[in-house]
Design a protein that fits this description.
The strands form 4 sheets. Strands 7-6-8-9 form a 4-stranded parallel sheet, sandwiched between helices. Helix content is 46%, strand content 17%. The protein is α/β, with parallel strands linked by helices. The chain is elongated.
């Protein structure tokens, strides 16, 4: 072999070694990089209705903004209890048996059963009116145990005052409620004194299912000057039944959520449930990625409330909206969104 051939082979071998070393280095480098965080999140939505649907949408978007999405490897399992507490309990048991990374219960009954099924898997609840009264947390600032979350505590005093501002002659407020819902009882503890402070009497009619709401609304006709819908999942789900009774009898209708104003209530100071969902997503992502102790993370309370009025609903229900209300409103809706 001549020197030229020998030299060429040496160069070729040298290049091959360099290439091999580069490949090994590249592989080692990529092996040393930690894979992105991937989690399995079980979402237990207590029932199907627009407010809770908005919470779920906000939750998914909030998680996604923090890098936890199905596109990035995080698995989000949504299950609906269809308003049944036993079903909600069984769903949480399934999540525990699957050893999910976190349980996100939407609404009070789902959160209560989640707390009974696990003391180790992090629980980040969403849209719980009063988690202390519901027995879910020890306090808003230090929830305790393995749970924290977000609250949809409504500005009840402002909502009650709004009834008086729009219907100054009102003397009695009719309320339909399901006393079996702890969030309803928590809200009523604030609504009752707020109405009393304004000199407004009240008539309460209890229901236990959505099928009873229409008859309950009819029973209030002639017994009250306005109907007020509280933070009650049962009544909210059957809200269209309440609106039909109010429409047929020209009975002013008020509610606590913006979504219900879109569907026919006259006005409210309301929180945004999509934003509550996003806040829940942000909170859940922090706890998972930073491995925080949920029991030491304060409950997030949505404090911003917008005045929203529905001019079409007011017209149909025979109410003239004061100019001061229309000027103050952040949003004036001119249609009714039936479901």
């Amino acid at each position: 072999m001549n020197n030229a051939n020998r030299g060429g082979k040496i160069v070729s071998v040298f290049i091959s070694i360099i290439a091999l070393l580069g490949l090994v280095s590249w592989s080692a480098c990529h092996r040393s990089q930690a894979p992105p965080d991937t989690f399995t999140i079980g979402v237990n939505q207590f029932m199907q209705h627009p407010l809770l649907d908005s919470v779920y949408k906000g939750l998914v978007d909030g998680l996604g903004e923090k890098g936890l999405s199905e596109q990035n490897g995080t698995k989000i399992i949504l299950k609906n209890a269809n308003g049944d507490q036993n079903t909600a309990f069984q769903i949480n048991k399934q999540f525990v048996s699957q050893n999910v990374s976190m349980i996100v219960p939407i609404a009070t009954p789902s959160a209560q059963s989640a707390c009974k099924t696990t003391t180790t898997i992090p629980i980040v609840f969403a849209a719980i009116t009063d988690p202390v009264a519901a027995g879910i947390v020890d306090s808003f600032n230090v929830p305790g145990g393995n749970k924290t979350g977000t609250s949809d505590l409504w500005p009840y005093a402002k909502q009650a005052a709004l009834v008086k501002r729009i219907i100054p002659g009102a003397k009695t407020v009719g309320i339909i409620l399901n006393p079996g819902e702890s969030n309803t009882e928590a809200s009523m503890k604030l609504i009752r004194p707020a109405l009393q402070d304004l000199g407004l009497a009240r008539v309460e009619v209890s229901v236990s299912s959505t099928g009873e709401v229409y008859a309950a609304a009819k029973s209030l006709v002639g017994r009250c000057d306005v109907i007020l819908v509280p933070a009650d999942n049962t009544v909210t789900t059957a809200f269209d039944s309440v609106f039909r009774v109010c429409r047929d009898n020209r009975l002013p209708l008020f509610a606590g959520s913006i979504d219900l104003v879109k569907r026919g209530a006259i006005a409210t100071y309301g929180v945004n449930y999509y934003e509550i969902g996003k806040a829940t997503g942000y909170l859940a992502a922090r706890i998972l990625k930073e491995k925080l102790d949920p029991g030491r993370v304060p409950v997030v309370v949505e404090s911003k409330a917008d005045l929203v009025v529905n001019s079409k609903a007011a017209e149909i229900l025979g109410v003239r909206l004061p100019d001061s209300i229309l000027k103050e409103a952040q949003s004036v809706i001119g249609e009714i969104q039936f479901r």
